[in-house]
Specification:
single chain; 344 residues; mainly beta; Neuraminidase; seven-stranded antiparallel sheet; 22 strands; 12% helix
Length: 344
């Protein structure tokens, strides 16, 4: 039985190889292996799911985006990835820790915390509560100085600012964690592998709500800007599909919004948190970064790259081979979405 109640989300992702950024095997990796072993997903599904990546010409960057990139590059050590970025220039830069080849060990990182600056000048890392500590995820809370961290012990903590004593919110948490743009809600996968369910946590009221029940395996939740909607992946039907939960008294529980048999589209596999921006979601899989419209769910564009981050209504995409970065404005997807609706 599937509970038709209120709940929330987040989860980890599959094996994802980033050259020189050895990423290990996150939640999706273990989930996919188990789904294959249970014959829930035929091998042909994975073969046919490969997406041909579209090569696009990236629009010119705005001056503030150029200076932001200069500032990031000035502070980034060789091999570091941009884990998160705030409008004021505050950032988390991470070094992915090496794991043995073909290991099921999840991706872990050493994260450095930088104060905000967007003028291209060099920065020095600032001390924070998780200096030189291996973590599974860390995300800046929008509109505040707070940070959410999932430790290697799978505890999830809230720091009101970088030097405060961490407040433990929950345990058995799996990365990635999604944070609503209003800074109030977080969503993540919780439980024991592979039986992970999605939860949503109100960090203002310190209250957790179970979003799913008997829908495992679930992973990669993404919250809308105000946290009232939640999209995640569930393999409960035997295939990975996108599901959505709305804070709507007319909706009794999560509803399936994709059908792989009639309209196969990519689904998030990580390792980064999916992004919700207005009517679009952006996420990565092993092939690259994809942008979908939400209503209806349609693939709008696939791009080479990894680790997408949203800032100033633009998508920052990192090159998985050399660590380069490019901006793609979300406005560039609007015409594609309009054309898709007309075609339908």
């Amino acid at each position: 039985m599937r509970r038709r109640g209120h709940a929330e989300i987040t989860l980890s992702i599959p094996r994802f190889w980033i050259p020189k950024w050895d990423s290990g095997c996150d939640i999706t990796c273990g989930i996919m292996n188990r789904m294959r072993s249970r014959a829930l997903i035929p091998g042909s599904v994975f073969a046919t799911a490969a997406i041909a990546l579209a090569v696009i010409a990236l629009p010119g960057c705005e001056p503030n985006e150029d200076s932001m990139l200069r500032s990031i590059n000035a502070s980034r050590a060789p091999g570091e990835i941009v884990l998160d970025l705030r409008d004021d220039g505050s950032r988390l830069l991470a070094t992915v820790q090496p794991v043995a080849p073909f290991s099921d060990e999840p991706r872990s990182m050493i994260v450095r915390w930088f104060e905000g600056r967007t003028d291209g000048r060099n920065l020095s890392p600032q001390p924070w509560a998780f200096d030189n500590t291996r973590v599974f995820d860390a995300q800046l809370v929008p509109g505040s100085k707070a940070t959410v961290v999932i430790t290697s012990e799978r505890n999830i903590f809230l720091l009101q600012d970088r030097l405060t004593i961490p407040l433990k919110l929950d345990s058995q948490a799996y990365a990635p964690v999604s944070i609503s743009r209003n800074g109030r809600y977080i969503a993540y996968a919780r439980g024991e592998m592979p039986d992970l369910e999605i939860v949503r946590f109100d960090i203002h009221n310190l209250a957790r709500v179970d979003v799913t029940e008997n829908m495992a395996p679930t992973w990669n939740p993404v919250l809308s800007e105000d946290g009232s909607r939640l999209i995640f992946v569930s393999g409960s039907t035997g295939f990975p599909e996108l599901w959505e939960l709305r804070d709507d008294e007319n909706q009794s529980g999560p509803r399936q919004i994709t059908n792989r048999e009639t309209n196969p589209i990519p689904f998030p596999t990580g390792p980064s948190t999916p992004i919700w921006n207005k009517g679009f979601i952006a996420f990565e899989d092993t092939e690259g970064v994809h942008v979908l419209s939400i209503e209806p769910p349609q693939l709008l564009r696939s791009m080479p790259g990894t680790l997408p981050i949203v800032i100033n209504n633009s998508l920052l995409i990192q090159d998985r081979h050399n660590g380069g970065m490019n901006w793609v404005p979300f406005a560039s997807f609007e015409n594609t979405a309009s054309n898709t609706k007309v075609a339908r």
